[in-house]
Write a structure and sequence with these properties.
29% of the residues are buried. The chain has one helix and 21 strands. The strands form six sheets. Strands 4-3-6-7 form a four-stranded antiparallel β-sheet, with no helix packed on it. Strands 11-10-13-14 form a four-stranded antiparallel β-sheet, with no helix packed on it. A four-stranded antiparallel β-sheet has the order 18-17-20-21, with no helix packed on it. By secondary structure, the protein is mainly β. Strand 8 (129-135) and strand 9 form a beta hairpin.
Amino acid sequence: MRRTAPLLALCLAATGLTACTAADTTPPAAPAGITAQAGSATSVHVMWQAAADAVTNYQVFQAGRLVRELPADKTMVDITGLSPQTGYAFTVRARDAAGNTSAPSASAEATTPAAKAEDRQAPTAPARTTGRADGPRSATLSWSTATDDTGVTAYDVYQGGIRIHTAGPGETGTALTGLQPDTGYTFTVRARDGADNSSPDGPAVEVTTPPSAGQGPGTAPAEFTATASPGAVTLTWTAPDTGRPTTEYELHVNGRPVTAIQFGAGAVPASGAAGVEHRLTVTEPAGTRWTLKLRARLPDGNWGAFSAERSIVLAA
């Protein structure tokens, strides 16, 4: 005991802390689920699963050389500027706030296809898309094959206009993970060729994930629709069944909140009521494309889950 007190006092004096805390020297686990898919003659799409540990960024390596660094909320990247008909191998490392770096992930390999000169013809869109929820945080999506004059090299999955997954040319389905419980999603698929020409969207498919265990009734507005007319957009939906009327909704356009929809006394839709309607006056030019989604303010003051997302073009 005679030696412990002086050592503790020395530690406190040196650090200015109220206790001695060991430095974090434990690295995160290596990222799992890494895949690589050639998207064109000069690019490869690399994806991996989000780390279970708290990380601040990911580092992507090609043949041991750092080629990209990404924040922790990004788990895929396009590596561009590559050579046609060349094999590449990629690994990913995770870093935490203390600067600890994980071991490399497993290696993912891809070979870029041959370049096609002056290829300006896009593939056809996949003619059919189907989807189903597999649980609160996952879904399975499938599509029909597309055609192209030089050959399809990849299929890109979009949600809300944002690419979230890339599959290989021989694939007609994929499992999507990292979704939110009790949430409506609208997915589309585009085909891509070796010159990076993308097809139009295939048919949209809607998937609603179920609530998590103990989460209670669904909180997303159901049967959400958006209809454009000259100078206006009309929204309709079914109010979430929360047990009490919902007086406020938040509308997001192109991924950003733009307005709060509030119902006054005597006009508040009942819990679970169908046919709720709101009309927006718009001043943006005709031909402007909007994607819209809606969520409700719950009785506990929190925001509920988003509705399915709708895409419209403003009318003349």
